[in-house]
Amino acid sequence: MALIITDDCINCDVCEPECPNGAISQGEEIYVIDPGLCTECVGHFDEPQCQQVCPVDCIPLDPNRVESKEQLMEKYQLLTSAE
Known about the structure:
Layout: E1 24-26, E2 31-33, H1 49-53, H2 69-81
Antiparallel strand pairs: 1-2
């Protein structure tokens, strides 16, 4: 699954620099995650780094974007092969 940032976001700016895929950016009101770039840090870390640093715990799994670890690894490989 990709992750999603909820309306509880306080725009503290700690998650954006932690994302190794550049999937997090400032939206119109709160930070947003591009599901096409989010691998839940698979391929980079054991845990999603944005979830680890979020002080208000507002970055859950997106139930509308279910992906297996294998699919996330494939996405990671596609993203990193373009570098």
